[in-house]
Amino acid sequence: MNENNHSLTCAVVILNWNGRELLERFLPSVVKNTPSWVHIYVADNASTDDSLAYLAEHFPAVGIIKNDANYGFATGYNKALKGLTEDVFALVNSDIEVTQGWIEPLIKEFEEHSDVVAAQPRLLDYKDKKMFEYAGAAGGFIDKYGYPYCRGRIFTVVEEDHSQYEQDSDIFWATGACLLVRRGVFEVLGGFDDDFFAHLEEIDLCWRILNSGGRIRYIASSKVYHVGGATLKKYDARKTYLNFRNSLFSLVKNLPAYRIPYVVFVRLVLDGVQGLRFLCEKRPRHTWALVRAHWGFYTHFITMWRKRSLTPAKTRKYYHTDSIVFRHFLCGKKYFSDL
User: Does the residue 166 lie in any domain?
Assistant: First the structure.
């Protein structure tokens, strides 16, 4: 039993790459609002700016984990977390402002429910604090074709927080912007998939957690504010490439085997429609990114198939709605409560 009568230890780990300005802006809130029994680390992906010098001068009590290259989000965290022994990892983006008491209700959930493996707080927009934030809002779900969306955000429609998601609840995926996960299960499942590099790796991890029998929770009383897009901007073609490719990767890895041919075929068709939409929006670089994403999927298909260490039961309903594309774009369902 550690101090303050908590049965679990916790490490807050912030991944950094050339983010000195973000550390200066947001790390103070983490240090101020995180209790002393929680260890705080910055995992640095071989930054070439003065991030490490800034930390040494202004936050000498914060632990520094040095990666020898920029490994992206997935491998960057995998390497950084290997040497830590705390029971729960709190993986916090460098552009997150936390609030007083943010971590206590999350840790309490892990302590009271042994089957809870991952959790997220209420994710709000730092730039407009009455709004949910795109990356995770009030917890994530997927449709039967693997398209992700959130309570509080469907595609680009983001809801205002007017206490409609006040209840703690089970969710399908927890946002990587502020993800808490049990170290033991994280290690058993092999952590994040290194082949993802960045984007949607948390959805893949959460799907594997669910397939292994764990639960994932949204804790409403914990609030954090997220800037979003601080490392890859919203309309960056690299982000388009990673999102489309990694989503297809997660389908092959985690779907019941008998569903893969149909679901992947439908996804490829719908992705093709999105490619045409990019062209109509005069964004050809994104169309090309989508084409490259599909090629990356084809060339890595066997690799992803071999990673299917856990096969979901055929009767398990893993999705919340049949097609979020159909419901949102054709039926006009803008909000989660409409589904």
Answer: yes
